Recover the amino acids of this structure.
């Protein structure tokens, strides 16, 4: 009986958790598209922080959603950022399953790599490839500040996602709890 | 980790990536037109973006007042001096005559505007994130008669051109972008050239007027108008004002920096010119 109750509560909390994540992604999208100044791409740390707490398939789904939202917000070819985000989210999920612990420094490092590669690809494929004059100014005046702001934004995002996961519980902690109950 | 690469999960992820590649290829094939799912999402997100955008604008304006206080003070001083000089100039007959001629030119343009078919005013929903050339999304699309490569203007001047059309939203690429070129002429000297975006100038909200003759008479503050030569823009619409003129490194032509008449990075409403005499958008 107790086990069924736990399972029901777990499922409910998981639903709440994913609804909150979806809302956060939408808020991230709306914030990204506010104003005409340089913006942090908050969807990157959000997707990576969520992926660190889940398996590869949910991480891939998070990557698809966040990547497509980034494509729409940044006016890029639909699917361009999504492919990169799926790859990053799955790698982050695998690294956290096998090698890394959920620490701020780890996620900051991974976000930095993800932002740097994404920024470089953007710069090369959307600007440098056309050979515009003074094109490096785009990197120094737009992409670099945006990347730094994204890294700074990673800290509150990581804290928020960790707090949500602690309240709602991850699959890993549920399975651990279930194993303990079964052994007792 | 090796176990993962042999698992079904890995195959599912590969399938997702293949699917996204397919979506990307399809998005390329519809060139210039938004996918209906994107258009739908933009329509749903638009009210939230409007609220967020207006909040962001208020915060930006408040911060700018404090940040630019010293600049405004200096500008105010400079403007006062400029006003005094202008008063002197106004007293001179020749200057009056020149101004009269310019006014006559504008009256002529107003009459010419009669042949333009304007859309209803379009709200700027949001600026494209981190676009260095100020591209933005407007709240009208193909359902409102907007077509690809329609010119976008404000009452002050030319803003850009429609580069992506959805059902209820469209994306505008501004004249700050190197992807947009506008054939222009000077209202007083009749020198012809091409206004196009430039990476360095776009960061200061300026664009470049190039292919002017070496001995051009264009000087600071001259008004630049569209010449309508390539059929993409109507003739005689204000593009901007000359800010700086310099001879190119080759010494064969002259280039000028132009400040767009419309405040491209601070727009809330624009109008699309749906039709005009001489329109020809077969070649963007």
């Amino acid at each position: 009986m107790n086990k069924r109750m736990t399972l029901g509560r777990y499922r409910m909390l998981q639903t709440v958790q994913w609804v909150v994540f979806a809302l956060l992604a939408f808020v991230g999208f709306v914030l990204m598209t506010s104003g005409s100044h340089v913006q942090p791409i908050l969807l990157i740390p959000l997707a990576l922080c969520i992926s660190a707490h889940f398996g590869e398939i949910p991480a891939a789904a998070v990557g698809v959603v966040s990547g497509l939202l980034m494509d729409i917000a940044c006016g890029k070819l639909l699917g361009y950022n999504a492919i990169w985000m799926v790859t990053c989210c799955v790698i982050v999920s695998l690294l956290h399953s096998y090698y890394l612990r959920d620490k701020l420094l780890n996620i900051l490092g991974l976000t930095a790599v993800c932002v740097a590669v994404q920024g470089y690809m953007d710069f090369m494929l959307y600007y440098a490839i056309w050979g515009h004059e003074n094109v490096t100014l785009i990197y120094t005046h737009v992409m670099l500040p945006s990347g730094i702001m994204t890294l700074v934004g990673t800290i509150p995002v990581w804290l928020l996602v960790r707090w949500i996961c602690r309240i709602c519980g991850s699959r890993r902690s549920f399975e651990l709890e279930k194993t303990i109950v079964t052994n007792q | 980790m090796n176990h993962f690469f042999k698992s079904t999960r890995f195959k599912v992820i590969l399938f997702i990536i293949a699917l996204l590649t397919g979506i990307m290829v399809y998005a390329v094939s519809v060139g210039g037109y938004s996918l209906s799912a994107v258009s739908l999402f933009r329509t749903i997100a638009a009210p939230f973006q409007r609220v967020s955008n207006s909040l962001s604008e208020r915060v930006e304006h408040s911060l700018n007042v404090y940040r630019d206080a010293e600049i405004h003070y200096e500008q105010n001083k400079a403007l006062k001096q400029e006003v005094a000089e202008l008063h002197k100039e106004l007293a001179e007959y020749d200057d009056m005559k020149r101004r009269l001629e310019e006014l006559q030119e504008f009256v002529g343009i107003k009459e010419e505007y009669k042949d333009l078919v304007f859309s209803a005013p379009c709200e700027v929903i949001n600026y494209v994130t981190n676009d260095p050339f100020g591209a933005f999304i407007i709240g009208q699309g193909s359902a409102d008669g907007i077509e690809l490569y329609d010119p976008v203007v404000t009452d002050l001047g030319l803003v850009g051109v429609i580069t992506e059309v959805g059902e209820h939203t469209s994306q505008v690429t501004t004249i700050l972008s190197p992807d947009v070129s506008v054939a222009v002429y000077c209202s007083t000297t009749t020198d012809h050239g091409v206004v196009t975006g430039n990476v360095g100038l776009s960061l200061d909200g300026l664009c470049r007027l190039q292919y002017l003759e070496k001995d051009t008479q264009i000087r600071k503050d001259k008004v630049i108008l569209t010449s309508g030569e390539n059929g993409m823009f109507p003739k005689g619409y204000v593009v901007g004002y000359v800010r700086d003129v310099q001879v190119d490194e080759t010494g064969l032509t002259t280039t000028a920096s132009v400040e767009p008449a419309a405040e491209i990075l601070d727009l809330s409403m624009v109008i699309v010119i749906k039709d005009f005499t001489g329109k020809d958008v077969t070649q963007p």
